[in-house]
Amino acid sequence: MRMRQVLLLLTALSTTLVAVSAAQSPQSSEDSHRKVLRKVTPQYPSEAKRINLGGTVKIVAQVAPDGSVKKVEALGGSPILVQAAETAVSEWKYAPGPESKETVELHFTP
Q1: Partner of 42 for a Cys bridge, out of 50, 75, 81, 84, CB 3.0 to 4.6 A?
Q2: Helix boundaries (H) for the chain
Q3: Do the Cβ atoms of 44 and 108 come closer than 8 Å?
Q4: pLDDT in tens, 34-54
Q5: What one-character DSSP code corresponds to residue 66?
Q6: What is the dihedral of CA 8, 9, 11, 14, to 10 degrees?
Q7: Residue 97 CA, distance from chain mean position
Q8: Which phi and psi (to 5°) does residue 13 adopt?
Q9: How far, in Å, CA of 106 to CA of 59, rounded?
């Protein structure tokens, strides 16, 4: 009998935790994954080549309804690579749609 109560309590607790964690991690409707119509490849910085630096830069692009990139913001990556990534993504063109934020990862390989 005691084991059954413990199992019921654990089941109720796990159900509650799942519901709470789902409520605490809202889905962003702003990040819409619009289709990219034109991508500009970033220029690999000469300083990065010289020191054999590679890595990933994560960018958030604010995209206007006409598909042009209004603003870019780096979320992570080497400062040497960030400028090249921001410059390239600011020239991208997306499919028309409601204003949105698009997350982009650019990979640099020496």
Answers
A1: 84
A2: 2-24, 46-50, 79-89
A3: yes
A4: 999 999 999 999 999 999 999
A5: T
A6: 180
A7: 19
A8: -65, -45
A9: 8
